[in-house]
Amino acid sequence: MSPLLLTLDFVGTFVFALNGALTAVRLERLDVFGVITLGMFTGLGGGTIRDVLLDALPPATFVDWRYLALAAGGGLLAFLLSRRLDRLAVPIVVLDAVGLSVFAVLSAYKALDMGFGVVQAMIVGTVTAVGGGTIRDVMIGRIPTVLRSELYAIPALIGAGCASAAYSAGYHGTVAALGSAAVCFVIRIVGVYFGLDAPRTRGHH
Amino acid sequence: MSPLLLTLDFVGTFVFALNGALTAVRLERLDVFGVITLGMFTGLGGGTIRDVLLDALPPATFVDWRYLALAAGGGLLAFLLSRRLDRLAVPIVVLDAVGLSVFAVLSAYKALDMGFGVVQAMIVGTVTAVGGGTIRDVMIGRIPTVLRSELYAIPALIGAGCASAAYSAGYHGTVAALGSAAVCFVIRIVGVYFGLDAPRTRGHH
Amino acid sequence: MSPLLLTLDFVGTFVFALNGALTAVRLERLDVFGVITLGMFTGLGGGTIRDVLLDALPPATFVDWRYLALAAGGGLLAFLLSRRLDRLAVPIVVLDAVGLSVFAVLSAYKALDMGFGVVQAMIVGTVTAVGGGTIRDVMIGRIPTVLRSELYAIPALIGAGCASAAYSAGYHGTVAALGSAAVCFVIRIVGVYFGLDAPRTRGHH
């Protein structure tokens, strides 16, 4: 992985850990270790599932201490920020969208680098992107965001699809990755901002 | 895997996805993508856990696009059926029993084909059979069926046991598989129909 | 693994299964198979996650029938004990602390034996120790103990750290393992007894 893409992966891990831990802080029932633990699960969960699906065990999130340190650091920062809780609703959504975008694209790249097909790259990109937040939600007893309203899995799927298309066309580099991540990020943020929801089942109408 | 057994595995994936997604539809809180996502988790979750336990990574459910397509298709069908929701209680139970039976038997076969012992075949058959539904229930915040009343893990264990016994006696074929699945299916349906429960702890008497 | 360490691993599996199943019994909503199933998930879950992280698949908890039998036996014993439920609050806490200590130390040893570093040994020891109880809590719809108050992950981390330090200093044997497990056990029990909690976020003050 190029230095810039590795940096992006670190950024994704950190912001997801920060986001998961901030979510924990808003619950207001967890101590400092609970906050850090939830941050680590959120930051490292998606990448661990990715490496199981790609048969890339032991997972990079476990072998490379920098992932562990960044996830723990994100959790600790969330705990320290907890006095400013009332201002954190927007950052939580933005951080989550950043992590979603970065993980969708980089995991699709990893799958393609390992020789998997485009379908697998898109699936693993999406699963990695939504995995950390899903583990976070299951652990705190919420219906996972990926199941609830608002576009969540779809931006990840589109971002992973853009990355896979660019990769297949020979663009493996940083620009294609950043562009694909930006597509995912914009769709996610627009979806949240305008409260765009996909069609629902009868019960909601 | 013989064509007929592979077809059965596809059937199990599809009906579990359909079942998981119908369960989501009954919740009446999910949009179309949430319904499809829950269907995919339900249809593919058990087989993924199976392939982790058997060290058969990357999982067949991930590498073979037909599993992915069938699981997504089952979820989409459930969304389209959601207007007829009031008639779906019986199909949900029957589809679940079909998936339970098929996965218990085929996963036991897979373990035996890979050289694992009979005990491992029975365990992995049971875990695969109950895995998808357990993930579904955890994600929507319900106590998993496998823990609640009604015979659920036991029919799967018996079906996987019949398949293992037949396999050990030299019957690897379709008839033995269908027969073992039928045993599991009948026990499960009889259990649901008559409300048969295993002995309970004091609190219930 | 030396016979005594293997015995300790069996003890950890049994007491975690017993603990998870007793927790289920206190819920008073599960039948005998639900109780045994939850006991098996609790007893075998941590070790299974450990072997995924260490790329030691198929997991020892699945391949070795003795783990399966001990976990099922622990669950069955819990069901049989369920008439004496009112006396079980203390044993549940003590059994959980025993399993926590044993798994933290032995899993750190396993990682070091396989050539992983000290950081990985401490992480995998902690994850294995808290893994079974976390799966138990998620399945019954509780916020996991590892996130809630009371020192839980930290004693495991310290125990795994002691074991790693001793191992690195050349002490691979039973005494170092028992000593490290004792450190974890004492910290956990003292934490529960005195209700020691780590610093909390604003909401609790």
From TrEMBL, chains A, B, C:
Subcellular location: Cell membrane
Membrane topology: Multi-pass membrane protein
One Pfam family of this chain: Gly_transporter
Domain Glycine transporter residues, every copy: 7-82, 94-165
Keywords, in A-Z order: Cell membrane, Membrane, Transmembrane, Transmembrane helix
Domain of life: Bacteria
Protein name according to UniProt: Membrane protein
Annotated organism of origin: Mycolicibacterium murale
GO cellular-component term (any): plasma membrane
TM ranges: 6-25, 32-53, 65-81, 88-109, 115-139, 151-169, 175-196
InterPro entries, alphabetized: Gly_transporter
Family membership noted in the UniProt record: Belongs to the UPF0126 family.
